[in-house]
Amino acid sequence: MDDQHQSHQVADDLSPTRRSFYIKFIYGIMTAIGAALAAPAAIYLLFPPKIRKEGQWVDAADLSSLPTGTPEEISYQRTRVDGWKVTSEKATAWVVKQPDNQVIAFSPQCTHLGCAYHWDDPSHTFICPCHTSAFSIDGKVLAGPAPRPLDRYEVKVDGNRLQIGPLEPHA
Amino acid sequence: MHNKIIEWLEHRTGIQTAIKDFLYEDIPASSGWHQVIGSMAVFFFIIQVFTGSLLAFNYAPTPGEAYNSVKYIMTELTGGSLIRGLHHWGASMMLIIVVLHMLQVFLYGAYKKPREATWMMGVVLLLITLAFGLTGYLLPWDNRAYWGTVVTTQIAGQAPIAGPYLTRLLGGSVGNVTFSRFYALHTVLLPPLTMILIGIHIYLVRKHGVTPAVDDTAPRRKFFPEQVFKDTVGVAIGFLILFMMAVFARVPLGRLADPTDTTFVPRPEWYFLFLFQTLKFFKGPLEAVGSVVLPGVALLALFLIPFIDRGPLVRLGKRTFAFTFAALALLAWTGLTTAAIMTTPKTTEADETAPGAENLQAWQQLTPEELQGLAFFRKENCKACHPGAGKRGIGPDLTQMIPAHRTAAWMIPHFKNPAQVVPGSSMPPVHLDDAGLNALSAFVLKLTPQSEQAVLSTPDFVVQGALIYQTNHCDACHQIMGAGQKLGPPLDGVGERRDRAWLEKHFQDPKSTSPGSIMPPYKFTPQEMDAICKYLGQLPKAGG
SS3 sequence, B332-365? Predict the structure, then answer.
């Protein structure tokens, strides 16, 4: 008996069934507690917040001030839910007025990795400075790694005012 | 494969041996259930670190923003109120467990030679637990947090000699600086310090071994698995209680901290109530005795217990004095705490995150007139010279005005003719009618260091909506937040009763939606209609 107490392998005079019950209990409880903490943590971090819808239509520009057939970058104020805050911020869009007074409004971010692109008049294309994606005036990919055409905002024309809404869903 | 990895790890790091050495430590045969509390304290510390880190992922550590982000955690994130509940109640349970652990060690006389250092390290850990509670109390930045901390920092300021220095260390009057320091202590300094001290504490326990009972001559046993099993049972019970509390007991979040709120009754967290009550017995110059000297002496005595009681270890049943002392201390604590609770007036402060309660934005606590003032504030571009945020521009920080200037009676003549009221002022006169000047001063009075940022970021449609509301004199018949007349129905929470289409129709032809209404029709432009409907639609319910 005494020898066993000196050893690191055998502890006490516990019966093997008792010993194995203890060990199973310890592992079981620790696993349960781990799960009870990990599950809420995962939900808390991964579930999207319950966002309140903000008024998403914004009065953005005067239609008569836009050139026809040439993209123009317009900037306007919009409100955005940003975490715990509703911020009023400056936003931009590239808009192209068609001859029939219809307007296309592109989101100002390249569909590749979100860089801000610009209109290059000589080549008549939108060019992204990051990875040289190029888009035509109607947003189609002409060159580079961009995976899809430029994203568009929904637009409404109200008399002489251009209103910009949420992003159109990807085709 | 599995064995190979373990073998490799063992060979390179010796981790398996280390764990075995830890688990197969010899402990006295007399060890048992009374010794599980120390392990529980370590477990609860881990819970606090875990839940605290999760909270920090969605928390903005600046006043005002802090409040909004806590509200966001509580109301908009799934599981957020559970995580905060675990952290909040975990703090209380942590303290209870630490005190129980200390009580057990005290009653068993386990602090005696050679374990004096272990005890003293334990007292330091108790103090750190209290410091966690104190600093964490401020972080939600609601009225409870703000006023509780005001009192605490004032107490620190009363300390003999060190008082003024302590006040300066804590950031002066409670505001940005105090907040940042409390946050840094709570999240940057204290956690690693606690880990190190727990490490030293456990090392000392291991060095001297678990204290055996006096008559314990039975052969020693191993820590694993029997004692670990008992520890696990203790941990499981503790965790179950905590989880139940987090699920069923709501953690309140009151109104945004408001230094001008004279109705709020500040109280510290429950475990500090006995100190709070002690303070009431000492008046005038003796106050520091109750607030600093007496607690200081008690703490010193606690720290030095191993040197005060130096007798040999005796049987538990013979430690009559220790038992009497502990019982008296417990009785005194309970008495003082009960007295403090009994004398606390019932608070009427609503829980801002309770189900059904409005999730109030800063602007939702402003009247239409104050929001109109904000419209003028923006139109006149006051911010160009009064940048706020603790900065002085060409003009002073409006949140830091001296009390004598924080009245409409001072401000309005100043707006009309700045240089006449403040000689040498380069501020241009504000061209508004009297009603406009009233609104502007009402708004400026609402600017505090705590609310400034939140109030100034009020969305444009709100300001426009309130401006339309004011210029059309809607308040001649309607009330919002108790301001205005009662000829028509109050508009608080109107968005819950009426939808947008109803409102628009009502403005165009009131009788079509409310037969018999005496309200005249209003011809708004589409932009105006949009602003006023959105503004009214988001008004909180009365008393929310």
Answer: HHHHHHHHHHHCCCCCCCCCCCCCCCCCCCHHHH
